Each structure stands twice: as structure tokens, then as C-alpha cells.
Amino acid sequence: MSEFSSVGLNSAAFSLSGLQEARAEWQKWLRSAEEGAQSGSASPPVLTPGAPIRARSAQSQEKKRSAEQNTFGQKELSEQEKQEIAKLKETDRKVRAHEEAHLRVGGNLIRSRAQYSYESGPDHKLYAVAGEVSIDTSPVDGDPEATLRKAARIKSAALAPPDPSPQDRAVAAEADVMAMRARLELARQNRGQTESVGTKVNLAI
User: Are 101 and 136 in contact (CB under 8 A)?
Assistant: First the structure.
């Protein structure tokens, strides 16, 4: 234990001695520089003043690095990167508004939350660049009138965004086909009911 303490003390004494020698050398150089400036003699040796020159150079590099970083330690973005981020933000806003319109109009016909595809920007944040929602497009069994109403809601939900995508228009077209089939089924039912009523009347006569 005593041996370990002795080694520690020797190490500290050596460091202090080295520091004192360095300080004395630096003061000596300063005095030499001042005397040289007053007497107009040659400048001091180049190797010694290299330390403050290197220190100034290091400070300049540090300032440059600081200028390239913001308060959060992130690298400053170029103008091109800022423009790219602005475009991604606008795309994200439009995509989310698009899917929200489907959700709002579709109501209980929507079968899933909006699913988004993301892209990472120069700021390392994720931005939505595409999205989709699932909607129930099945007809109502045995009820063409309800199917007609459902088809109208499906079409409204598909075309709810101000800029429907090709897929949105395809869903709307599918709803039109569903409505057409429902009308045909409804017409057949009405015709069958009319014929049934006529038959009963004839039999009554």
C-alpha cells in the first residue's frame, strides 16, 4: 500500500516539475521576444513560437466546425437540402390530408388505419410519401337497395380527396359496377313482384 502511494507521489512530483520547467521556458521566450522587439534584433527561434501558432490554428478550425453546426450539434444543411426537406414536408402534408379525406367520408366502411410509406430526408427525419386505406367494397347480400346506398358511399369515399389517385378512381369505378348490378337485381325483384301480383289478380277473377 505504501509502495503504491509512493509511486503516485513520484508521478505527481514529476508532472509538477515538468510543468514548472515548461512555464520557465515559456517566460524565457517571452522575455527574449520583448528584448528582440525593443532592440530590433532577429526574431526568436521558429520552433518555440510554433505552439501559439498551432493553438490559433486549432481555434480557427474549432470555430469553423462550430459554424457548420447548429445549437443541437447537427451539421448545417445546404440550400439544396433545405429545398428537398421543404418538398418532403409538403408531400407529407398532402399524403396525410389525402388519406384523412378517405377516412372521414368512408366512416365505418374503412377496414384499416391509414398505412404510410416513408422516406428519410437530409435531416434524418421520416416523411410520408405514399399512403393507403382499405375499404369494404362487398355488396349487401339479398338487399340491392342497401347495396346501392353502400356503392354511393364507397364512391364518395374514393373520390373524397381533391386529387384522387388512379387507384381511387379504380375503386370509384368498382362502386359504379356494384351499383349497376344492384339496380339490375332491384329491377328483377320489382318485375317478379309485379308478375306475382298480376297472377294473383287473374286467379281471383
Answer: no
DSSP letters, 30-94, are: HHHHHHHHHHT-PPPPSSTTHHHHHHHHHHHHHHHHHHTB-TTSPBPPPHHHHHHHHHHHHHHHH
Q: Could you tell me if 106 and 157 are in contact, meaning their C-beta atoms sit under 8 angstroms apart?
A: yes
- What is the crossing angle of helices 144-158 and 79-106, to 10°? 160
Closest CA to 131 of 88, 98, 86, 90: 98
For 6-61, the pLDDT digits (tens) are: 333 333 434 455 556 666 776 776 677 666 656 555 443 333 344 444 445 555 66
Question: Is residue 147 within 8 Å of 109, Cβ to Cβ?
Answer: no
Look at residue 138 and give its three-state secondary structure: coil
Any idea what DSSP says for residue 28? Answer: H
Could you report the per-residue pLDDT of 182-196, keeping only the tens digit for each? 999 999 988 877 665
Between the alpha carbon of residue 35 and those of residues 30, 32, 38, 47, the distances in Å are 9, 5, 5, 18
Radius of gyration, alpha carbons of the chain:
42
Please report, as a single letter, which amino acid is at residue 190.
N
